Amino acid sequence: MIEALTSVAAEPGTEDATSPARFTALLEGQKRTLYKVAYIYCRDPEERQDLVQEIVIQLWRAFQRFDRRSSIATWTYRVALNVAISYRRREGRRLRDMAPLEFGLNVAEANHAFDADAQKSRVLRALIDELDELSRSLTLLYLEGFDHAEIAEMLGTSVSNVGTRLGRIRRKLKTHIDQKGRELP
Amino acid sequence: MTELEDLRADWVERDQSLAAAIRLHAGLLRESLTEQRLEKVRRYGAMRGVDLLIWISFLAAFGMFLVRSFGDWKFFVPAAALQLWTLVMGVVTIREREALRAVDFGEPPRKVQLQLARLRLERARTVQWALLTGQLVWWIPLAIVAFKGLLGVDLYTVSAFMPTFMAINLAVGVVFIPVALLSARVIGPLLADTRFSRSLIDAITGRDLAEAQAMAKRIGSFQ
């Protein structure tokens, strides 16, 4: 599942290893990831745009020292998740207050396309709203189709812990649905 | 019954529409990534430069005063207290900022978030002690040093009551530390709920510290 987008990152240290053109190619390939991370961490659609901008800036900074020890996809998820968790805690300064820049990544339409008012998306929203920051990351990676080993590698935890945590998330989901007292078709 | 697998299937389905919905304007992005544009983002970096300049200026001023007043202990001791406070707080702050800058966001979230939680814990401790001890050195000792250094006035001899006044103020400053800790907890909720008063009270009472500890514990227990 983890893609090796080796064409995006040139050898470290080469002249254009961290050029804006390569970075743009990376973003084009990973833009859906950025939006989905923002979706998981921000309930408010307008905030998602801010968070995506913060992720882009942090990706660009981190891109300068990307050493290819992990695939581009893994690295992008890690940076995006770390920024999102910090953003949620309001640890960092809000980008909007600091630099009203347009980073060329518009997610307004994605909010319409992805934020479906369907029962399953409402259930998912209710579930993730109850989860702590790292469990949200884990849920996202599970939804994205990664297996336990890949999730463990990305988050920096053990495979057994991923299984245990996913079990808890499943139970939470069941409890939530039981409490609502309705089943989905 | 909805299972996590059903939510995943729904997620994949919704994901199909995303590629076309997110528009990347490569030209605009490239333009935004130029040094001049990123400089706006780094504006806070320039503020760090100003902070550093102010810090060095204070160290230099207190240092010169210390050299001049060596042997004249009634001036040397308050200046040494100011110099020590400024030096320690500055070094701690620089160390914390450097540690924050060194955090590699490309590392696994559990590791990075634990690093950030520890840094936040350190920062909360630093701010709490800076506030509690700062009021001791940045009042009477500063007045003594500033009057002598800038105006050549010996504050001890301005009036007969002055040494007593200084001693009382210093004693009050020492007593203020436990009183502030206690009263901030009691009075804090009654104060106007402004962002400034809230952060000040949270820093003094150690609520920031408690939050940082809880966060570090939560992330640490993720394993």
Strand content of chain A: under 5%
Can you tell me the residue ranges of chain A where pLDDT is under 50 for at least 5 consecutive residues? 1-8, 91-100
Largest interface: A-B, 76 and 53 residues
Classify the oligomer. Answer: heterodimer
Q: How many structural units, i.e. domains of chain B? A: 1
Query: Uncertain regions of chain B: pLDDT < 50 for 5+ in a row?
Result: none
Rough shape of chain A? globular
Average of the residue pLDDT scores of chain A: 81
What proportion strand of chain B? under 5%
- What overall form of chain B do the CA principal axes indicate? elongated
Cα separation of the termini of chain B: 30 Å
Polypeptide structure, described:
The complex is a heterodimer of chains A (185) and B (223). By secondary structure, chain A is mostly helical. Chain A contains 9 helices and 1 strand, in the order ααααβααααα. Helices cover 65% and strands 1% of the residues of chain A. Chain A starts with 19 loop residues before the first helix and ends in a 5-residue tail after the last helix. Mean pLDDT of chain A is 81; it is low at 1-8 and 91-100. Chain B has 223 residues and is mostly helical. Chain B has one domain (2-222). Chain B contains 11 helices and 1 strand. In chain B, 22% of the residues are buried. The mean pLDDT of chain B is 83. At the A-B interface, helix 1, helix 2, helix 3, strand 1 and helix 5 of A face helix 1, helix 2, strand 1, helix 3 and helix 4 of B.
